[in-house]
Design a protein that fits this description.
about 290 residues, Immunoglobulin-like, alpha+beta, single chain
Amino acid sequence: MKTFNPIIFLVCVLFSLNFISAVSITDVSSSPQEVAPGEIVNIVIEIENIFEDDVYNLNVKLDLSEDVPFAPYQSSSEKFLDELDDGDEEDFKFKLIVLPATASGIYKIPVEISYEDDEGNVSLKLELISVTVNSEPELKVSLEDSVLIKGQENIFLIKIVNSGLADVKFIYLSVSNVKGIKFLSGKEQYIGDIDSDDFDSVEYKAYISEDASGTISLPVVLKFKDATNKEFTETKNLILKTYSLKQAQDLGLVKKPSYIIYIIIGVLVLCYIGYRVMKKRKLKRGRS
């Protein structure tokens, strides 16, 4: 059985303390909490001297390498403090701009902290902070070129456009029966993901009643998530224009039926009948 050696224990403790940092990040805040591409974010890093000795030449640097989509804005990415007394805290403030083409997501920024003790020994500590890049989703709906005729089944497309800066995912679109229109296809449809500055369409089949109004306001419900998995539910009104068949024909929205082909066929049939009749008469005359 091994015996406890207090001298060896003390040496091990002192050796371990040399690798424990005298400073620590106690708080990180960003304003705004979510920043959009091309916008400015203010970051405050609070650092505390957790040991009993003062530290000197404290340097805090954000490592904004190529993999980090931020750049310093009207300030440096490095801050310096002559001395931080034991038990004291200090705020280090940084102002960054998000690169315009940055995709939404949570980005880690390496932080390098260096300082000296009272004997001039330099220590280096590496930490990570994070910044969320995101922007408010912007989805728009519209009716693609479709002519809705009363008294019959119609097929039309609803177009969903992502006009925001962030991608949108897990999109569901649902509609409900309103006066004058009855949907014959599924009322809820899954669209999936739509990238920023892109669109998708869903097809619906519906019966428009004869007494339907010429203008129908159709509520459309969109359910989706942003890049941070935050859920959204939005209701938008889609305006549907309906026409009688005659109105649509008069406005040139649908083609009027062409009767010329029927006239030509009728003339040919009459000519053929006339030809057969004349032929029979000639045969009868030849026999008599």
